[in-house]
Amino acid sequence: MKTIKIDNTMYDIPKAVDFVRNELAKRKVSKKESARIILMAEEVIGKMVETATDKITITVHGFFDFTKIWLSAKGTEFSASDIKNSLLFDEEDTENAELNALVHRLVEKVIGGTLNVQHEYGVNKVSIRVKNSAFKTLITTLGALLAGVGMGLLMQKFFSPSVANAVSNNIFSPIYTIFMNALKMIVGPLVFCSIASAIADFSDLKALGRMAIKIVVAYLFTSMIAICIGYLAYQIFPIGNPSLASSVSDAAASTIATGQSVKISIKDTIVGIVPNNIITPFQKSDMLQLIFIAVIVGLAAASLSEKFPSLRKGLVLLNNLFSKITTVLVSFIPIVVFCSMAKTMLSMHIGKLLDVIVWVPSIYMGCALMICVYLLLIVIFARLNPFKFFSKFFPAMISAFTLASSNATLPTSIKQCDEMGVSKRVYSFSLPLGATINMDGSCISLIITALFMAKIFGLPITGSALTTIIVSIMVLSVGAPGVPGGALVCMTIMLPQIGIPAESVSLIMGLYPIMAMMQTCTNVTGDAVVTTIVAKQEKMLDMEKFNA
User: What is the DSSP letter of 250?
Assistant: First the structure.
């Protein structure tokens, strides 16, 4: 931690700015981020000089990737809005309206949510948060994952079952449930506002239509590839022991009951997209219906933007509001990951699952092959360095792996795509849509599970049976819920289509949480790959930011 004090005169501003610049350099902050912080610090110092009645204290402190700049001085009160407004033109100047709007976006990009201004007991206190490197999220999440695994194993070994269950039921489970409930609460409004504001922001609806068609076609294309990859993985690793058929139990009763209420036909899926009221989709977080409503509202706002510009601004404000709430929730992910992994390891009895444990590595292999395909797709269709992509998106992949929920990972995916340089116009539409209709990892797990169960029950997979499986998987991948356990429900729907009892999922239920981690990681990665490819083709990818 380093501190200096300067006089409240304009002559000391360069000294203060140089101090900030040198401290950022010592902490190896990137040049681009340093330029942003220095510009902001210069404006803040200038405002403090203008309002201060005593010396100004400037402190730069931090450790590892966490860096903050604190400024304080006695003086008259000012706010963050005053600093933003000092960079803007007169809003009533209609002649420079377009330029002013551009500067507004620039100021928001520079300042964003990193500036905090408070006035207490006659003292102005300002904090500037330096943007942490992409590795911060990755390291903290991985650390929490490993700590959770270690805690679960230690408790399993040294704690009595009653004490371990008490800790899990009263500490780990409540924290995890609270977090997931909070995400379920916010994901509906977030998806709606994200897509609606993205569409409303398009002045050229033809360009939007072209982009939307590309995204949907790309998602269907990767889903078909995923099914082929899953089939290939099973041929390489043909698992399934017929003796397991006698071990099927009724442990899957609740999952089967859920699956019976899900419609599988293409007609019913299409009809179900249009809701009969506007409230229920938000209550049930029905993503397909929410996306439909968002598209309608976004198109209407875009068409009326000239007459009623406040409609577009309102959607943008709502999107910013729910994005901010989501950002706060995401900051708690490491804690939730720790609780989730500790809870999972406590209930994991590997000795009882050895007969079916081969099911997990088979799906992991299929997902790993699919991720290799993503490398090729990035190169072929976007002409980008795939390793750059994965190095920047890896934190979201870790979050997906630990949370095992596409919807729960959506905020992190949005954050990483933004840091990658993808235009908000693209990812605000593409990622929520992908979390609903693009389930590459689920396609892999479903086809491997179908073939695995067919071998256990001695059912031959003919051409017609394979066609039934593929059609069922494609339909289910569109309508599958993006929540933990969604693919398990899909399995109970698909298996009876080829003559396998739905109760067979009882064989794999114990291992499902482990499999779901890799499955969700693949789902989320596929969404980001398509988003990046489309952004590059539509010239909506900041190459400087991507290559930084």
Answer: S
